[in-house]
Give the backbone structure.
Amino acid sequence: MQILLTFGPFGPNMQNMSNGRPLQYDADKALDAAMHLFWSQGYEATSMQELLEVMGLSKSSLYQGFGGKKELFIRCINRYRTNMSEVLAGLLVKANSGRIFIEKLLLNFAIEARQPEHLRRGCLLMNTATEFAQKDSQVAEHVTVGFKRLREALQAAVLRGQLEGEISPVQDAGVLSDYLICSIGGITTVVKGGADEQRVREIVGVIMKALD
Amino acid sequence: MQILLTFGPFGPNMQNMSNGRPLQYDADKALDAAMHLFWSQGYEATSMQELLEVMGLSKSSLYQGFGGKKELFIRCINRYRTNMSEVLAGLLVKANSGRIFIEKLLLNFAIEARQPEHLRRGCLLMNTATEFAQKDSQVAEHVTVGFKRLREALQAAVLRGQLEGEISPVQDAGVLSDYLICSIGGITTVVKGGADEQRVREIVGVIMKALD
DNA sequence: CGTATTTTGGACCGCTCGGTCCACACATCC
DNA sequence: GGATGTGTGGACCGAGCGGTCCAAAATACG
């Protein structure tokens, strides 16, 4: 059991071993719903009851299929991370330049700033880092992995921008990536703190200036 | 009661009206202890029990003196804000230049990055904004006030820096202040996320570059 | 059909949460 | 020393928390 917990996916139908009653829910959809709820509300503020409602399954199914609140949360983080990596990689390929990719990424949060409150939720990884990465080493690990992936994506963009001559080549790409991670965390904070779109756009303008 | 709650201090000995048993605790010290606990742990993750222990008073005293968890928390935020304003104003006066003041302020978090986990807690206002400013309009108001004060302090420093020729005069001081608030939020995030001192110093280096 | 295997609904659990209440302790004022 | 007013300790509260358990339901296989 503990081994399963650690090595997951101890999820439903581990490898669809035919026998038995079939799952009555779409595990992927359910996980997605949980992720969005955690994303909006944070870990502590989200109750199992709310999760059940939004995931559309019963308590025993949740425990059977996902193993408990924390395990579910970790799955959500990892799902978020995977999604993010894919999306970013795809966007970078299609982007006109590394610098524009970065700017667009940041400006996404400006758009978020005009959404209703529950959608102004920033980046799940950042939220988790501030809420309780330090309190739980297990969660912390997964957040760290997420940060690493994000950094890789950003670094790729920075390197490309440097080659393209739109980002200062004298600054270390790794350091700039860390700076951008920091910036994303900051924007997450100010958006949640109530900054409006215009303000976020201005901030992004200054952030980008540091790349010159 | 509600009026008292809103207009506080409905605290102990509202204006020390002589009669009755005297307070057995130092209200200021108690409030300080509560503030530090909230600061380290966040609102949701801090229980009344923990607060009682660290404040050194009994349940009824807490409710009598501070009115409940949320009211106590709001008091802590305001206390934090007031302290902060004073400290920043004092430091700015003594600083060699506006720019150096800003840099030192940011580097403070680098120093925090080598503290044990429970002391790597960033800025209470930022933490509160990310945790649940959106969920509670009452708290949100107080956070907003805090942000405003912080912005004022930063703007004063920026303006001074511009006069001194160490900060670009073409950039709007208000925008730069917002940028710095964002940066503080970001640093808070990465520190809580586990960044070490060196990394934070590098990030601060880039942040400062945007002021050129 | 019966049996094995899995999922599911919901009753149930102990615990901790924030919060209330009141008898008593401790002060001042006359 | 009352009378009066305030602070304090601790019992007590209902609610909601995350989590467990098991009988019933639903499939596959022989």
Observations:
- Residues 12-13, 17-24, 57-61, 64-65 of chain B lie near DNA strand D (CB under 10 Å from a C1').
- Chain B has ten helices and no strands.
